[in-house]
Specification:
alpha+beta; single chain; elongated; 3 strands; ligase activity; three-stranded mixed beta sheet
Length: 69
């Protein structure tokens, strides 16, 4: 079980690192300056995607739209 938790933690960290690269590519659209991030994160499990989305939500200024898959 400890190994499984460690693997999950490492996957989350990798997803957050990938998300930090994606954050720099955010597009600003519309009169309200909405930051939009759309990225295909192949081979990323749902928990890691959630971690990446949370990182992007916290690191980009509001308003923000994030689509990860």
């Amino acid at each position: 079980r400890a190994t499984r938790n460690e693997v999950s933690s490492l996957k989350n960290k990798i997803a957050v690192l990938r998300a930090s690269n994606v954050a720099s590519k955010a597009l600003v659209v519309g009169p309200n300056n909405i930051r939009v991030v759309v990225e295909n994160m192949d081979d990323t499990d749902p928990d890691a995607l959630r971690s990446a989305a949370e990182f992007l939500t916290e690191s980009l200024q509001d308003p923000v739209a994030i689509v990860l898959g």
